[in-house]
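Extended Data, panel c. Modelled sequence:
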Amino acid sequence: MSSRPFVRLGRERRPGFAKADQTVVQFSADTALDATRPCKTAGQADCALADEYETTVSDPVAVRHILTALDFTELATVDKHREEYVFVNGGAPVIVAIDTIDSLGAFVEFEFTGEASSPDDAAAQLDAFITDIDMGLGERINRGYPHMMLGREH
């Protein structure tokens, strides 16, 4: 079952990047278990795929007023500090993000940004990268930080 789409308005702080401090608005709709976009990762029955659209915002106050006028409700505030690193795995770039979330702890996120013939192919390439780095990682979490803060599974 996929979760409901959501809109996120956030300030991103990414030290070392050209735009190290910017405000973005993002729409995200999970597509996990969608029959038109199968998702199978090694040893898992399901995984998370998401259609995401993101853009920078020059006036976050105005966007907050727009969302309120459209009856959006603020569900959670996530205070996140992110460090990003880009690795090239056999020609396929992977972003490794280390997130520290107030009240939740530290997490690592892997984002495949290369070319793939299908979602399964992208998942396989990402799984290969994770296996190759040979790090002791905890269990995979297929929930966003707001869902975790709210105690929701999806």
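The two ends are 8 Å apart (CA to CA). This feature is highlighted in the accompanying rendering.
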